[in-house]
């Protein structure tokens, strides 16, 4: 199979990409950025003139200086758009997040290979075998972390990144898992997902990567073997072992492992949370409705104990809230959600590079497809109505995104009006608080200004904090203000008739507002006791209600107008970007059918990886094999065009298809597709990889 083309970003000043990477080493907090490859080219007839070009890459074997040098050597054989120049030097940079060093290999062509590392102070150090082992493991984890889910969001974020699959056979799997076993109990040093407050032995980037690998490839026996060995050293690992057993449908054995392990460590919050998650899934099985309440009660006990074991972790409180939602105990669900500790989102480490002199993003002719539009999507931004661009929920990540999902699930089940009633039953509302607390005559003005300041965020002045950071965009549309422009089929301006079907939430009293400068906690507590044991709503949750109101308002306008246009047999027109945003909006609100409808409308105008990923999920749910394969091939094509040969989500989809339908049927469907040979070969490669892994012993 022909390898994808190599992107090139040209340096303004020679070696500036290397210097820029060195400068940010001390600021890296996660697994580190993708690997950097910098090349020096010179014209044969003018050796004195050199230019520097670079690109980023993930998934290359980083187990030694020789393996990284081999990657640079492969680039010297590739056909280049500047045929008059040749590569004479190369530097490969790969971050070691364990020791916080940047491992580097300098290759001269022809000539020598020099491996070394750079510390956070920019000083050169010797690269040992132990450091290379750490670097290799970090490289595999980064490949999974920076892989695209199919929607294209990760691919667009960093320009010119080549992505390769780091584990393609049982030999490389053995090396990966051996490294993971050796370094397992140092995994907490790598940090963790943004929803985890304190990384530990079983909640960190290493364990996340391992679980993602087993989920993607279906290599459950390998995972069971690994965690069985590690469990003999620390009982905490039992939660990971149980998770892999659940993945492999070994439920009885998984329950037995958790039962025995919780007896040894009764307040291990990850084990308790794993139990609660399993019991919830079993309770929601539609074929065993009669057991639902018993299982939910057991899940409630586990989830409640996990919040006691880890009161500062978001995940434990979120799980308890989800159990209450499943039990339809709405008041406790809302109260528990209000108790969730929220963390500022820590994004992945991304390269910070100077503006390149030139950007070259080549496409192989064999992979060109008319429907795959490779132009930047900023081209479509002027076709989007401002009311759609201001939907703040689309920006949520980490704990805020998870909490918002719980809130929208409640809304989908009981409706917005009922949710507002429950909210007013649970929390102290601003109106009742003000009527209870009448300020002295001389302080009326101060009270008024204080009220204005405290509720500013809800009235559309500065927006609510997004992911823990203050966001100061002026968004009048969030107020439901009738003077603000709203969504229409022709991007016109309309009044608030459709908006009136969604009630605007009144304001709660936040802890900050209740305190109101009064340092006397007892006095504040005494005043609040008059409100029938109601609670104060956290400011972030109050903001989420306003953001949810805005989502519902725009959604209602869209659906109302579509119905009106259909009744009049008129075409409802939107740009592709607008349809994509509306699809995401419907998805957030748990309206899958409407989301698919919007995504289809988007794809009827132009290709969109995000829209196609949304429809692919529907095809998988409905077990539509041919449509699923066709969608996967189109996504493979788009990713291949942007230098990616690796997507765990697409690998998982093909693996499950092969397990359900058989390898021969899937391959025949792929072969019947009239697409460029390169794309077919890559899709066959995905399928062959999955089939080979399944048939290579040990997998049950």
TrEMBL record:
SUPFAM superfamilies: TPR-like. Residues 468-478, 501-518 have a biased composition (Basic and acidic residues). GO terms for biological process: Golgi to plasma membrane transport. It comes from the Eukaryota. GO terms for cellular component: exomer complex. Gene3D superfamilies: Tetratricopeptide repeat domain (1.25.40.10). Residues 444-455, 479-489 have a biased composition (Polar residues). Residues 433-526 are annotated as: Disordered. This is Chaps-domain-containing protein. It comes from Hyaloscypha hepaticicola. The lineage of its organism: Eukaryota, Fungi, Dikarya, Ascomycota, Pezizomycotina.
């Amino acid at each position: 199979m022909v390898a994808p083309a190599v992107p090139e970003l040209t340096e303004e000043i020679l070696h500036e990409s290397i210097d820029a990477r060195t400068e940010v080493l001390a600021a890296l907090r996660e697994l580190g950025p993708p690997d950097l490859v910098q090349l020096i080219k010179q014209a044969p007839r003018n050796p004195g003139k050199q230019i520097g070009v670079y690109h980023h890459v993930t998934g290359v074997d980083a187990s030694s200086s020789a393996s990284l040098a081999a990657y640079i050597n492969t680039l010297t054989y590739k056909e280049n758009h500047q045929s008059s120049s040749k590569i004479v030097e190369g530097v490969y940079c790969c971050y070691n997040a364990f020791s916080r060093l940047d491992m580097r290999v300098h290759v001269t062509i022809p000539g020598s290979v020099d491996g070394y590392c750079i510390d956070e102070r920019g000083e050169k150090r010797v690269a040992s075998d132990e450091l290379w082992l750490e670097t290799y493991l970090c490289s595999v984890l980064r490949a999974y972390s920076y892989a695209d889910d199919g929607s294209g969001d990760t691919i667009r974020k960093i320009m010119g990144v080549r992505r390769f699959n780091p584990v393609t056979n049982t030999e490389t799997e053995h090396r990966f898992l051996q490294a993971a076993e050796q370094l397992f109990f140092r995994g907490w040093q790598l940090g963790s997902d943004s929803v985890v407050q304190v990384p530990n032995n079983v909640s960190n980037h290493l364990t996340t990567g391992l679980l993602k690998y087993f989920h993607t490839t279906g290599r459950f026996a390998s995972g069971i073997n690994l965690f069985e060995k590690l469990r003999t050293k620390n009982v905490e690992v039992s939660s990971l072992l149980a998770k892999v057993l659940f993945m492999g449908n070994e439920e009885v054995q998984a329950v037995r492992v958790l039962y025995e392990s919780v007896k040894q460590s009764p307040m291990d919050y990850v084990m308790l949370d794993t139990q609660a998650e399993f019991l919830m899934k079993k309770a929601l099985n539609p074929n065993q409705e009669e057991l639902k309440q018993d299982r939910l009660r057991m899940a409630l006990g586990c989830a409640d104990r996990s919040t006691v074991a880890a009161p500062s972790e978001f995940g434990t409180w979120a799980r308890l809230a989800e159990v209450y939602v499943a039990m339809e105990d709405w008041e406790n669900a809302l109260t528990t959600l209000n108790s969730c500790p929220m963390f500022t989102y820590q994004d992945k480490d991304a390269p910070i590079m100077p503006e390149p002199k030139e950007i070259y993003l080549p496409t192989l002719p064999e992979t060109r497809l008319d429907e795959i539009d490779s132009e930047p999507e900023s081209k479509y931004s002027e076709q989007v109505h401002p009311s759609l661009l201001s939907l703040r929920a689309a920006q949520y990540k980490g704990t805020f995104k998870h909490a918002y999902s719980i809130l929208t699930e409640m809304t989908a089940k009981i409706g917005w009006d009922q949710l507002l009633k429950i909210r007013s039953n649970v929390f102290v509302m601003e109106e009742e608080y003000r009527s209870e607390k009448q300020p002295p005559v001389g302080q009326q003005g101060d009270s008024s200004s204080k009220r204005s300041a405290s509720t500013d965020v809800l009235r559309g002045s500065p927006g609510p904090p997004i992911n823990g950071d203050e966001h100061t965009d002026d968004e009048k549309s969030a107020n439901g203000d009738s003077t603000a422009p709203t969504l229409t089929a022709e991007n016109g301006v309309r009044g608030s008739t459709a908006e009136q079907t969604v009630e605007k939430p009144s304001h709660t009293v936040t802890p900050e507002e209740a305190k109101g400068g009064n340092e006397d906690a007892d006095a504040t507590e005494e005043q609040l006791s008059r409100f029938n044991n109601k609670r104060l709503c956290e400011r972030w949750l109050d903001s989420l209600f306003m953001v949810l109101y805005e989502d519902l308002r725009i959604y209602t306008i869209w659906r109302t107008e579509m119905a009106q246009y259909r009744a009049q047999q008129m075409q409802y027109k939107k740009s592709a970007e607008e349809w994509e945003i509306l699809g995401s909006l419907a998805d957030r609100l748990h309206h899958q059918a409407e989301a698919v409808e919007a995504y289809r409308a988007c794809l009827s105008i132009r290709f969109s990886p995000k829209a196609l990923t949304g429809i692919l999920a529907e095809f998988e749910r409905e077990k539509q094999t041919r449509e699923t394969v066709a969608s996967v091939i189109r996504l493979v094509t788009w990713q291949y065009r942007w230098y990616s040969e690796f997507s765990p989500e697409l690998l998982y989809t093909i693996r499950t298809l092969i397990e359900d339908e058989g390898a021969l049927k899937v391959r025949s469907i792929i072969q019947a597709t009239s697409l460029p040979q390169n794309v077919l070969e890559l899709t066959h490669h995905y399928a062959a990889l999955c089939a080979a892994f399944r048939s290579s012993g040990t997998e049950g």
